[in-house]
């Protein structure tokens, strides 16, 4: 919680505007995060993953600071451009693109595309001729609290064929990318992925393709309940792994932080709507908030992300609760398998602060499921 957010919320309450849940993002924190990334990996370009928080205020701040942007759709490309980024600072990093969207991106000046198979290379070759492509390789995501599974990427051996196919199709095989899984709490996770990337570089070299770039992806964590290593610790571990696998021929590198750039900059203020029990004997209370899975807290799916929650009664005795959202969908339960400790004195109408909510909240919020409006957001 920053002083600026505290003041904003106090002022909002004093003016009687505190209706409904609200996300407040402190742009000073985003700026500090950008600076920390730039310092921790001084030779690495930062491509902010727009999907984490695409608010115009965040994008234009980062554009001013010199950031590049990783985008997944034409809309995100347009948002990055509107924020002041030039096309050479934008990558179309989604491996799953419609050919007509590639054509629109090409018309907007985008020349850097992600691929992970030959059919996608064919689309890029037709719709964005001569562009640079990087091939995403699979990564096991061990150690990540929000793993990205096998949906993206191919086996490293296949990546070589994909890049060779790109070359034969008139594209420029530029490099390799991976993502070690989001909220990656192990700074050594990059080591194994870089070993695979180096193997692809070597094999490509033997086939006459000199790759230039490794895209180290995102994965940098935000502090939720457990402590996480600093960005500096990640920078050091990644640099060591680059040295180990590429020797004195370290390629050009980029990172794509999303969560690590904006997560800790945001706080959601929510209200307790109901505290109840299912029977008089139950010792676990149910606490219902005015925000749930459909209001922006989708990452509580499978109870993956456990947000720190603060109340004004935290000095009182604590007891575990099932925590749920306000909608009439039984999936809208945040924490049940592992109940969440909250003050026993917690009452209907109390405000709770959900910390670390600057990433993957506002845009996960449904437009009006069950009539609840999308999450209100302020970037200050
Ligand atoms: C979502 C995404 C990111 C951001 O990941 P974080 O774990 O939030 O840093 C980076 N790169 C790609 C390709 C992504 O899809």
Number of domains in the coordinates? 2
The name of the CATH superfamily of the largest domain reads: Alanine racemase
Specify the helix fraction band. Answer: 25-40%
- Class derived from helix and strand content: alpha/beta
Major sheet: 8 strands, mixed
Compressed to H and E, one letter per element, the order equals HEHEHEHEHEHEEHEEHEHEHEEEEEEE
CATH topology of the largest domain: TIM Barrel
What's the rounded overall pLDDT mean?
A: 96
Q: What is the CATH architecture annotation of the largest domain?
A: Alpha-Beta Barrel
> Care to count the β-strands?
18
CATH class category name of the largest domain: Alpha Beta
> Whole-Å distance between the termini?
13 Å
- Overall geometric form: elongated
Low-confidence stretches: none
Please compute the radius of gyration using only Cα atoms: 22 Å
């Amino acid at each position: 919680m920053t002083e600026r957010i505290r003041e904003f919320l106090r002022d909002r309450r004093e003016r009687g505007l505190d209706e409904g849940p609200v996300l407040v993002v402190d742009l000073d924190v985003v700026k500090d995060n950008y600076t920390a990334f730039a310092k921790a990996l001084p030779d690495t370009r930062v491509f902010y993953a727009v999907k984490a928080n695409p608010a115009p205020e965040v994008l234009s701040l980062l554009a001013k600071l010199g950031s590049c942007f990783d985008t997944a759709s034409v809309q995100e490309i347009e948002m990055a451009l509107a924020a002041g980024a030039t096309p050479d600072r934008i990558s179309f990093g989604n491996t799953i693109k419609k050919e007509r969207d590639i054509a629109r991106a090409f018309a907007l000046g985008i020349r850097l595309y992600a691929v992970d198979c030959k059919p996608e290379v064919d689309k890029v070759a037709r719709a964005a001729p001569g562009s640079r492509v990087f091939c995403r390789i699979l990564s096991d995501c061990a150690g990540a609290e929000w793993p990205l599974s096998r949906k993206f990427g191919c086996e490293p051996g296949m990546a070589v064929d994909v890049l060779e196919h790109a070359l034969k199709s008139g594209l420029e095989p530029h490099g390799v990318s991976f993502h070690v899984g989001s909220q990656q709490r192990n700074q050594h996770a990059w080591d194994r992925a870089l070993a695979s990337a180096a193997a692809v570089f070597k094999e490509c070299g033997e086939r006459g393709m000199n790759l230039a770039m490794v895209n180290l992806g995102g994965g940098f964590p935000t502090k939720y309940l457990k402590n996480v290593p600093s960005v500096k610790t990640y920078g050091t571990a990644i640099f060591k792994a680059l040295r180990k696998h590429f020797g004195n021929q370290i390629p050009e590198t980029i990172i794509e932080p999303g969560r690590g750039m904006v997560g800790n900059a945001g706080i959601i203020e929510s209200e307790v709507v109901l505290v109840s029990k299912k029977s008089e004997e139950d010792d676990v209370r149910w606490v219902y908030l005015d925000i749930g899975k459909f209001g922006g807290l989708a990452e509580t799916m499978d109870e993956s992300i456990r947000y720190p929650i603060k109340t004004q009664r935290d000095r009182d005795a604590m007891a575990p609760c099932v925590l749920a959202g306000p909608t009439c969908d039984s999936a809208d339960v945040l924490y049940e398998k592992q109940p969440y400790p909250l003050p026993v004195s917690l009452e209907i109408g109390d405000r709770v602060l959900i910390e670390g909510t600057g990433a993957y909240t506002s845009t996960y919020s449904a437009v009006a499921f069950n009539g609840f409006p999308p999450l209100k957001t302020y970037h200050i």
